[in-house]
Amino acid sequence: MQNTLAHDYKKGENMIVQVAALLFVLFAWSRALLRYKDNKIGMAGVVFWSIIWIGVLLLAFAPGLFAQFGEFVGVQRPVDVAVYTCLIVLLYLVFRLYVKQETGEVELTRLVRRIALQSPKKKVESQSK
Fold first, then answer.
1. Domain boundaries, the chain
2. Distances (CA, A) of 51 to 8, 9, 29, 72, 75
3. For residue 127, what pLDDT is reported?
4. Buried (b) or exposed (e) across 51-78, using 16+ Cβ within 10 A?
5. Side-chain half-sphere CA neighbours of 110 within 13 A
6. pTM score, two decimals?
């Protein structure tokens, strides 16, 4: 009898996690779609974030898939597979942000140089009056 109660309690915990994950994913995915509608991200961004959010839903609703994949790659728990995957994705996103930031700095430097070369020279008044 005790195993049945523990199993039912575990099911209840799972349902809370599943509902929370579903609500969060719907909210986050709606943000991605709105950013696409506002032309802030492209179709590739929508596809990328859709894959991420589908993965979150799969983890919440079908953790057995992660368990099977974990066994395949030699990881014990499904949550570990999700954590390792998230770390890899986050490192990739940080790399992309770094590249964009570096590219932005180079473009800004070129723009400032071009404007400086095109602008007529102005006399700088001395501040001592």
1. 1-61, 78-118
2. 31, 31, 10, 21, 22
3. 54
4. ebbebbbebbeebeebbeebeeeebeeb
5. 6
6. 0.63
Q: How many residues are given for the chain?
A: 129
pLDDT at 73 (0 to 100): 84
Where in 17-104 does DSSP place strands (E)?
none
Residue 100 tokens read as: 């964009």
pLDDT over 60 (residue 128): no
pLDDT reported for residue 6: 41
Distance CA 78, CA 86 (A): 12
* Contact criterion met (CB below 8 Å) for 36 and 42: yes
Average per-residue pLDDT in the chain? Answer: 84
- Token pair recorded at residue 117: 């070369």
